[in-house]
Amino acid sequence: MSQRVSDPAAAIQYFLQRVDIPSLDACWTWKLSVGGPGYGQLFWDKKVQTAHRFAYKLFKGDPAGKQVNHRCGNRRCCNPAHLYAGTQLQNFQDMLSHGTHVPPPLKRGSEVGTSKLTEEQAAQIKQGLAQGMTGVELARRFNVSVSTISLIRRGIRWAHISTPPRQHSSMH
Q1: Which of 71, 112, 153, 154 is 20 to 30 Å from 131 at the Cα level?
Q2: pLDDT at 122
Q3: Burial letters for 73-107: b for 16+ Cβ neighbours within 10 Å, e otherwise?
Q4: Element spanning 47, H or E
């Protein structure tokens, strides 16, 4: 049988001193340091590790290249009964079912780091298109590619910028 962690007796003692165990069925909450994503973290075997992964290895063994997921949805939980070796897809499905998935904020327009245009410039391009300017003219004027102008024309880029009404010449 392969050793789960180096010096298991010391590891179990170390672990039990740092986790709150209200009952065997409840979440075992990590009491100390928590990393940016909200997972408990510890220093063992000369490296920082997540507490739940450490608990899994301590009580269940090596997760064999898989990530360690929570059945309970509590990132600070270290109860081995709440942990399983799984995939990123399973973890995502768990987060959806637990209600713990927080999608990243939607960025659009000039908030996108690679954007060369501002909202005002995109509105000017849409105005130019409505007035009959060509994509080549607008691309030169705003120092962007013709394909960028085409994407704006088709509403694929900068769709959140309202298109001005097309101006018609009136005959009296």
Answers
A1: 112
A2: 95
A3: bbbbbbbbebbbbbeeeebeebbeeeeeeeeeeee
A4: strand 47-50
Measured CA to CA, the distance from residue 14 to residue 25 in angstroms comes to: 21
Place of tokens 């962007």: 144
Residues of the chain where predicted confidence (pLDDT) is lower than 70: 1-6, 163-172
> What is the per-residue pLDDT for 165?
54
Q: With CA atoms as reference, report the closest residue to 17 among 46, 45, 39, 42.
A: 42
Helices and strands (H and E) in the chain: how many: 6, 6
Residues of the chain with CATH 3.90.75: 8-98
Q: Phi and psi (nearest 5°) for 105?
A: -65, 140
| Highest CATH level, class, for 8-98 | alpha beta
